[in-house]
Write a structure and sequence with these properties.
By secondary structure, the protein is α+β, with helices and mostly antiparallel strands. It folds into 3 domains: 38-52 and 271-342, conserved putative lor/sdh protein from methanococcus maripaludis s2 fold, CATH 2.40.420.20; 57-63 and 192-270, Efflux pump adaptor protein, beta barrel domain (Elongation Factor Tu (Ef-tu), domain 3, Beta Barrel); 74-183, no CATH class. The chain has 4 helices and 20 strands. It has a 6-stranded antiparallel barrel. The chain has a 4-stranded antiparallel sheet with strand order 6-5-3-8. A 3-stranded mixed sheet has the order 19-1-20. Helix 3 packs antiparallel against helix 4. The radius of gyration is 42 Å and the shape is elongated.
């Protein structure tokens, strides 16, 4: 009887063990692969970008007036007067400084010589009209008159230092009473109505630059706009860079000469175009670019053609439409046609 009972108990125990194992398998946590197979690979999607895309190149340079001049005395002597202060705006031909020339002012002597030569030239013209003197004599009087006029101008410049154009005083190098030699810098003026920035652009970027392109710089919380005025044809032989000049209107005098600024230039621009973040674009071994789009619950590998490249985006010129949903995360686990689970927040 005991033997018969043992025979019946063994199958029962085995059945109970099998049921227990099944229950444990059902309650065991699922692997990531199992969850991906059931629900799909978790991804996030976004509608493809549609609008303006710009390629912006950055460079920097020192600000200066569009025209600048350092004014110097024509003759050695003592600085008698300085008629301006830093920041003053002066008109063209305004006397900004006066010199006291060693040995006395040359203006009186030059003025007398000029007056005499002028009268002699006028008298020679009248005599020539009456036939009293030859044309050669008149020409000699004219040459003496022109020479006296030139020397008077030199004497005047030597004493009175004048502004060659309307501008702003940005530097004063000497003080009243200073004893200085010939052609010593006295005052620097600049036309600050427009600011010039000369930048050095490397060989890789120079082909993107064109005259007339829009440029901007940041000043506090404002964006100030200008444009590319000039691009050097030849490179600097030492740095192998090209000089590019940008101009910025400065009627409110907010930009100061001598300061150093970064300049942003829009070298390419497209409107109403498609674009995607750089990180969603992958490349096949043959360098064909592609992205993944979301189509009916699956990832669709989509070959694309790229246009403008910026630091953040690629322009898409072929391969997508404005209605496409692009996959922007979970990309490393994707293959064409794999099931995906969109988990956008």
């Amino acid at each position: 009887m005991k033997n018969i009972l043992c025979i019946f108990l063994v199958p029962a125990v085995l059945m109970l063990a099998e049921c227990s194992n099944r229950t444990k398998d059902q309650n065991a946590p699922k692997t990531i692969q199992q969850m991906h197979n059931e629900k799909g690979i978790p991804v996030t999607t976004s509608k493809i970008g549609n609008g303006i895309i710009r390629r912006i190149e950055r460079s920097n340079g020192t600000l200066s007036g569009v025209v600048e001049a350092t004014l110097a005395n024509g003759m050695g002597g003592t600085v008698k007067r300085i008629n301006v202060s830093l920041g003053d705006r002066v008109k063209k031909d305004a006397v900004v400084a006066v010199m006291e020339i060693d040995g006395g002012s040359p203006i009186d002597v030059a003025q007398s010589a000029y007056d005499y030569a002028k009268k002699a030239y006028e008298r020679a013209n009248k005599l020539q009209e009456k036939g009293a003197i030859s044309k050669e004599q008149v020409e000699g009087a004219r040459v003496q008159y022109e020479d006296a006029k030139r020397k008077l101008g030199q004497a005047t410049v030597g004493v009175n230092v004048k502004a060659p154009f309307a501008g702003t005083v940005i530097e004063i190098y000497e003080t009243v009473g200073s004893k200085i030699g010939e052609k010593t810098p006295l005052i620097k003026i600049a036309d600050l109505s427009t600011i010039k920035i000369e930048m050095q652009v490397n060989q890789q970027a120079i082909d993107y630059y064109k005259t007339g392109q829009k440029s901007f710089l940041l000043l506090n919380n404002d964006t100030l706009w200008g444009s590319i005025e000039r691009i050097a044809l030849g490179a600097n032989q030492l740095a192998h860079s090209f000089k590019v000049t940008a101009l910025f209107p400065n009627n409110d005098q907010r930009l100061r000469p001598g300061s150093f600024k970064q300049v942003y230039t829009i070298v390419e621009e497209k409107t109403q175009t498609l674009y995607v973040p750089i990180e969603v674009v992958n490349f096949d071994p043959d360098n064909t670019p592609y992205i993944y789009t979301f189509v009916k619950g699956k990832a669709a590998k989509t070959n694309v053609t790229l246009g403008i490249t910026t630091k953040q985006f690629y322009e898409i010129t072929q391969g997508c439409t404005s209605d496409d949903q692009i996959i922007v995360s979970g990309l490393t686990m994707l293959n064409d046609g794999v099931k995906v689970n969109v988990i956008n927040k």
